[in-house]
Specification:
globular, 361 residues, mainly alpha, 14 helices, AI-2E-like, transmembrane helix
Amino acid sequence: MSSRFDKLQVAPWMISLLQLAAYSLVIILALSTMLIWGQVILAPLVSSIVIGLMFGPLADRIERFGVPPVISGGAVVLIFFLIIMTMLTAFILPLSGWISRLPELWYKLQGILADWQGMMSAIEGAREQLDKFTSQSADMVVQVEEGSPIKTVAVSAPTALAQILIFLVSLYFFIATREQIKSFIIGLFATNSSRTTFAVIFDEVEQFISRYLLSITFINIGLGLTISFALWAVGIPAPFLWGMLAGLMNYITYIGPVIMMATLFGVGLVTFDTVNAALIPVIIYTIINGIEAQIITPSILGRAMTLNPFLVFFAITFWIWAWGPLGGFIAVPMLLIMTTVIQNLAAHTGVTENKKPQKPG
């Protein structure tokens, strides 16, 4: 048997392939660990770069009037901050009212589940066991109360405030000094052709990402307003809240619309008396979102090239796993940036044509 193994020879290409796979696995594991452990710092930093690429051309237009980059960067950050604060203010009051109606929603869901006797029996059995367990352990009740949502918010508030501060400061410095950053990176290349290639790629990526994100933003605003009026027409309370939420969720491709459908179904259950009527807002949202995704967005952005749906879903899943909801919002822009850089590099080296990716259809 040993002689057979002695005669066995592995092709050099197979050894190289195994080495490449091993190195890739180590790099992926190391990067994943770094992203998770460095979430508090890396998440706002990366987000500031994505948003900075979006608002960079706006800063350029301000600077054309003779405004120095230090002031134009501050103006852009102030505009972005005011937009976010306006949205939060519009969210807080109506959302707090709906949170108080969660017990009513749970009561409606219990009524629906009552139609399935087997499922209801299992829930009742689990509840009886839970009641028995909690009645025998008063200490456990105290521990659960200590882990209340209010305490969770209070504990996580300093971290959230630190991330917001890191994001705003890094966004300001990226916008105000991005030309210096570009010049520094260009200086690292040895040849003039490499420097020229990088400068062109940087400008093309910034212009494309800015146009893409701004276009998607205006599309989502239109989507939110349309859904708001449609929900108002059928008697849904706080229609502007759900329309604005629909616009925000539309940034998270695939997953966002599913979350929105589930949310609107819950809103329908609280608003209407029957399950069929509760499906009305879901149907309205599905129709409007389908028109936006299949007709409006492709007509605005073009159908020249779409991102692979698997890559989009993988990117969203990975970034949500690494950075939570924030990762879901920046997943597609990050994938677009990487795809655009790779395609422009290939185009400038003569490997492929210069095509730019669009929103996944």
